[in-house]
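Hey,
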Amino acid sequence: MKFLASVIISALLSYALGLFLPWWSVMIVGLLVGYFIPQKRFFSLLAVFLGVSFFWGLFAFYISNANDHILASRVAELVIKKNYPILLMLTTALIGGISAGMAAFTGRSLAILLKKQ
């Protein structure tokens, strides 16, 4: 139950903080979820990774779909040298998920460290 709660909370907090803060606010989300929801470090990392990746992937698809993937196709052509806008969206989701997941691992480690002292 904690795992599913972590996934949902991380996705919702990513959306809420993303409205006002830069892209790295997902690391704040990961740190908070990892610190305050007690579970093993790997499960904390995995839950936040899945939540943020899912949100970023859907959000990137939503934004790209609004203009028929024209901008995503052009950026994909520049960045990955292929005209695959979906691959660009998956890369975006992967970057957000890894960033937030590592922050969740750090937050969980910090909670364990402070609990021992």
